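We include the entry.

. . .
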Amino acid sequence: MDMKIAQRPDYTFKYNRKLGRHGWLRLTPAYSVKLVSEIIDHIPPESFILDPFSGTATTGLVASERGLSTHCLDINPFLIWFGNGKCRNYSETELRRFEKGIQNSLRKFHYLINEDNWLPDIHNITRWWSENTLKPLAALRQAIADEFGEPGDEDVSALAWIAFCRVIIETSAAAFNHVSMSFHDDVTTYELEQVAYLYETVADAILRSVDKTLSGTACVYSADAREPVSVGDIKYSHVVTSPPYPNRISYIRELRPYMYWTKFLDTARDAGELDWKAIGGTWGVATSRLQKWEPDGVDLPLPLNTVVSEISRLSEKNALLMANYVWKYFHDMHLHFDRLRSNLKKGAQISYVVGNSSFYGVKVHTELLLSDSLRQLGYTNIGNRIVRKRNSKKELYEYCVYATWQEERLYKPSYFTEASGKRTQLALF
């Protein structure tokens, strides 16, 4: 491996910060507008793109800005709501309502400051916000709810709540100087007028960023990427996406403050349940279930068996858990590639931005293992290229794995029936 490969911060979320809608909310695993643009630059205007791991809808928004049509899928209700709010056009009437609603909310906010306003049930909440900051945040939240209703509607009210999400993260002790979220040692206090000013400033920036009309269309739908998806019986010519990496960094961890404050989450148990449904999720209850997980007869490529066996034989305390984690991740991604075929046009091109991993010194070459799955499932023209060196361990890189789907006929799902039994090669533990 060439150790001179650059880290390329322009291929990360850092590049998105000042790009209008792309910079509304920070999510560490989000990939760069620049990288997505490079992937889709030569896609013909009549193409229909699929992003089966929508996240913050970067693919959908970049494609819309270029006049292309995109369907995005995600399993997280907050990200579905957020992505649709990010990717739609807003009428002049809606934007006037938004401006007026923001001013009304700020007036109500001052009257609500001494009320006993609702707070989310976040464990150790004062690690995130000081008690004196929580009071104006709760009052502001109630004022927005009184004016716009609770989050969930896919209309201009989404902009008001997205602005609030930005305020709660800006006033928190969350630190983004690591591959995932950590906390500053000191929790800064924000007074009423500071919170009001910040919210008005963020809302104004959002208003200015939606002024430009999107010439394409992008919609985000609720779907499990491991299941066949049919949105209007569309057959997609391109797939451009970035699934979770097999590195145990959970999206739920970073999304929790937004999801609790907007009531997309109520309890820690809910967070764990949602993470269990996601590919690569290991938050809360997902971890305990992972210990007992077994594959359901899926015929996986042999090289995965070697990697999983190597991890499982280590003397580390959590070796078996991590082996199961790797096993389940590639099992689920194999199911995804399998089911995806029924949604692709002949000649469809797919591009997946992924990262490799290391568990107790055992290298997990994601780019090669996913390529093995694609090959076994009948994809052609399979390859990968290094995108950048990641900021953490020296052996970690980001890749773009690509392939083509040539067959029009449907393959049978690549799993065994109960009568045929499970493959003995998978009986590792």
User: Anything to note?
Assistant: The chain has 13 helices and eleven strands. The first helix runs from residue 33 to 40. The first strand starts at residue 48 and ends at 51.
